[in-house]
Design a protein that fits this description.
This protein has about 210 residues and is an alpha+beta fold. The protein has helices at about 1-25, 30-35, 95-105; strands at about 35-40, 45-55, 55-70, 75-90, 120-130, 140-145, 150-165, 165-175, 200-210. The chain is about 20% helix and about 50% strand. Strands 1, 2, 3, 4, 5, 6, 7, 8 and 9 form a 9-stranded antiparallel sheet that branches. A hairpin with a 2-residue loop joins strand 6 and strand 7 (about 150-165). It comes from Hymenobacter rigui. InterPro entries: Lipid/polyisoprenoid-bd_YceI, TTHA0802/YceI-like_sf.
Length: about 210
């Protein structure tokens, strides 16, 4: 009798575990299917830039054109953002003629070649938890940034969250412009440029709002 009882008990235990195991199994594409797309709100989102040189610095902003944020549960898991490069502005120069001159230079082939590349894009490839950040960031965002038709992978800390049908992300990304063929005034390529040098890295500070 014991010989029959033990196999039967084992079979019952296996059948009892199977449903729970099936629920945990992740099939290809199932995570993507579970994500919801939130629409970027360009009028509520901001994107500022800061570039430094030996003798000072300049700052300004550009506008988001469109975008989506992918949300799974209460987590941001992806997203794609399009920036309207034609909206580029300089904020620190108040004199109109000098302001227009700098904007024109930034639009030129020396920098962003905006006539040929009217948009830049960023596509999130991963969002991973970040703990103990002094600035309150709770995630590391990694993605593909495309400027002047050149795509490079970048990572940066950010504060992200989803609440009440609104997804938000804020932070500052540091970008090496030379990786996007923006070499004008770079000491890495023009060693004798002296105090006319412009730093290779510039920063983009963002505050993104997307709604369900």
């Amino acid at each position: 009798m014991k010989k029959l009882f033990m196999p039967a008990l084992l079979a019952a235990a296996l059948f009892a575990v199977s449903p729970a195991s099936a629920q945990k199994k992740v099939t290809p594409g199932s995570e993507k299917a579970a994500s919801q797309s939130y629409a970027l709100q360009p009028q509520l989102s901001t994107l500022g830039w800061l570039g430094k040189k030996v003798t000072g610095q300049h700052n300004g902003n550009v506008q988001f054109k469109e975008g989506t944020v992918l949300v799974r549960g209460s987590q941001i898991v992806g997203g794609t953002f399009v920036v309207d490069m034609n909206s580029l502005k300089v904020e620190d120069i108040k004199e109109a003629e000098y302001n227009a001159k700098l904007v024109g230079h930034l639009r030129s082939e020396d920098f962003f070649s905006i006539d040929k590349n009217p948009t830049s894009t960023f596509k999130i490839t991963s969002v991973t938890p970040l703990k103990g950040d002094a600035n309150g960031n709770n995630a590391t965002v990694t993605g593909d940034l495309t400027i002047k038709g050149i795509t490079q992978k970048i990572s940066f800390p950010a504060k992200v969250g989803v609440k009440g049908g609104v997804a938000s992300a804020s932070g500052t990304a540091t970008i090496d412009r030379t990786k996007f063929d923006i070499k004008y005034g770079s000491k890495s390529f023009f060693e004798s440029i002296g105090d006319k040098a412009i730093m290779d890295e510039f920063t983009m500070s963002f505050n993104v709002i997307a709604k369900k």
